Amino acid sequence: MRFPAIVLALVxxxxxxxxxxxxxxxARKAITPEGPIWMSGYAARTHASEGVIHDLWAKxxxxxxxxxxxxxxxxxxxxxxxxxxxxxxADRVQKQHGLERSQLVLNCSHTHCGxxxxxxxxxxxDLLTAAERDGxxxxxxxxxxxxxxxxxxxxxxxxxxSLSAGRGTAGFAINRRHPTPSGVRIGVHPQGPVDHDVxxxxxxxxxxxxxAVVFGYACHNxxxxxxxxxxxxxxAGFAQLELEKAxxxxxxxxxxxxxxxxNPAPRGKVELAAAHGKSLAEAVQRVLSGPLTPVRPPIRTxxxxxxxxxxxxxxxxxxxxxxxxxxxxKLRAREMLAAIDAxxxxxxxxxxxxxxxxxxxxxxxxxxxxVVVDYSLRLKRELPNENVVVAGFTNEVPCYIPSRxxxxxxxxxxxxxxxxxxxxxxxxxxxxxxxxAACRRLLDATALK
Length: 449
What we know:
Elements: H1 5-19, E1 22-30, E2 57-65, E3 70-76, H2 83-97, E4 104-108, H3 130-156, E5 159-169, E6 173-175, E7 177-180, E8 183-186, E9 197-204, E10 210-217, H4 234-246, E11 251-256, E12 262-264, H5 270-289, E13 293-295, E14 299-309, H6 315-321, H7 327-341, E15 348-358, E16 362-367, E17 370-371, H8 373-382, E18 388-391, E19 400-401, H9 404-409, H10 412-420, H11 431-446
């Protein structure tokens, strides 16, 4: 059957109108350090990097709706951003590009095979030479410049686009909080909670060609351990490479979800990182090849900071710790004593909380810090009728964010990790409810009536 030209024209106009509900821009910039640099994530490392397996990237997706609503997502193959750098980046983006704080999302993959982003986890690098520390500060300046630049490039690339979403699964993440008679240890806990969801957002032009694929997973990027010294993005980096080979011309963007208490299994070899990456990429491809849900405007965003209280600690606690043979405990104690002497004792932590809604079709919740899986599982239970994606490692990574369950169980994510982050100690048991309450406020503020 042949259709009249006017019918074909109307169909084409309708398709273009649907696609034009959004404009999207995509940009990317390699942020691989030049030459050897200290790598972040493992305190046991003793020297700088020894080469590169694949590049590290800053990638940006800018979205705009017909009413001028905007948001820019930046994904980074980095361990995490410190508060100082994030605030500078947000200020520069606001001045140069007019984006409000709620319209800029920064998510780090938390690869443990990337460079130190100074002063993130600075307590772990107290023995560096002045030249090594200066090199890290110089790299942090480069990261800030590249992020601001890639945001501008994505905004300059805005063009009509359609969005669609789906969800798959990948099974290599396993809970690492292994219970033992002497307490919780980092290991393998098959009975522990996990979140194997793989949320996917497809961004395509009016011609149907895929321009960007955003996907996430809740698992530490720790396939490669502390004796490995070559820069790479771990499984997330391999997954992005696999997707970009499978979908030519598309930019693959990985988001780290609430995987603070999850490790890849098995781990310890480059081949395993590549295999996990391929497994994740295949999960995304299965979603892309199946039915997807159209995503409609408007774009609504909100940002706030939850005030998380630390459990009370006295000066005497830190004076005792200052005599510890553990150099990391000693350094943390000195920092806390200096803060007390300056009249600025560390009593609470401001944690970034962000919500981005794409119509009624995608609800993104971004939390700062290394967030355990309980938060994602809880918000999904509380929002059963929404396509909710909960990410940790968003905007800044000041420390682990345990749930009440994790706090009560104790262990690395609850307490010991605070030493390396230079924080005074564990949070109070109110931490989970404080974070969830902040999420609810922003979810209410962005809800469509």
